[in-house]
């Protein structure tokens, strides 16, 4: 597999220098030609988001980097910020020119407080080199970045909840429309991009759209950074082309004997061994980068219990399907453990999960029953042994 294209392997500030030589439409056109989609998991085309914000009319616009990395099993953004912060800030500056913003905000996860000193030092160094501030590198671009500390809430990974927290309110999702690209932070057009997305944006401007499209699939171009944990010989942070199969990934990390892989974190899909030939790509199995390998000895009810406790704790409580639904799924799971859950009630729980997927207000609530539903679908025999035979 390809090695991580570290910042050291890039020509320093090549992406920023290229962007400064282009007008705003051509920057967005280059990102569009690359096919870059959001690396946080949603997979929304980055160029479309930037174009909406660029077209909006306002006295101020904002570039927001979502570094509120809270999905269980995800830690690749932390590594990118530790080792390649310049690349992320370069991408934010490129985005600032593309949409017409003069201010960038890094929303940093509360648990990553220890990174703040390092990141502030990187920002100070960029100001000293005129890579931030007034007239960047002799151009007419004024752009600077500040850091905002999150409070450790999972829900703030959702972009509108993040903006609410930035404005000093409780982190809860907003109704849509309007969308952040025209009514975001302080009511101004704002783009919210993941740490990895912004780092790739800088690479694309530096190396070109064709370089990025040279790997991946037609609908999922480029490379992706993955956080791999669980029952494998070589856990860690990896870079793979989009479109590789689950089996290929497991071979690289030493997890060939896995009974399942949880792809996309607690809110993702539990993929059984019979489906390891499927591809990790937006058109098949999308992911923000979390891969949790589940070995042959893992009790799937224990895995689900862990995930559902997390969602019960982290639901913001704003909408009933998420607030009550996750609690009912956890109660049902404990009934399964105790052998007191009937087949009829298990079906009702699956129907509830389906309702949560369509009726929850935000993407986090909509995805919270995914693991439950996929485990019931793929490991029914393991669950059946705990259901009373008289049910």
From TrEMBL:
Q: Name the keywords, alphabetized.
A: 4Fe-4S, Iron, Iron-sulfur, Metal-binding
Q: Which SUPFAM superfamilies does the entry link to? A: Nqo1 FMN-binding domain-like, Nqo1 middle domain-like, Nqo1C-terminal domain-like
Q: Which InterPro entries match?
A: NADH-UbQ_OxRdtase_51kDa_CS, Nuo51_FMN-bd, Nuo51_FMN-bd_sf, Nuop51_4Fe4S-bd, Nuop51_4Fe4S-bd_sf, Soluble_ligand-bd
Q: Which domain of life is it from?
A: Bacteria
Q: Name one GO molecular function term.
A: FMN binding
Ranges where the NADH-ubiquinone oxidoreductase 51kDa subunit iron-sulphur binding domain occurs = 301-346
Q: Which PROSITE patterns match?
A: COMPLEX1_51K_2 (PS00645)
Q: Which family does it belong to?
A: Belongs to the complex I 51 kDa subunit family.
Report the protein name in the record. NADH-ubiquinone oxidoreductase 51kDa subunit iron-sulphur binding domain-containing protein
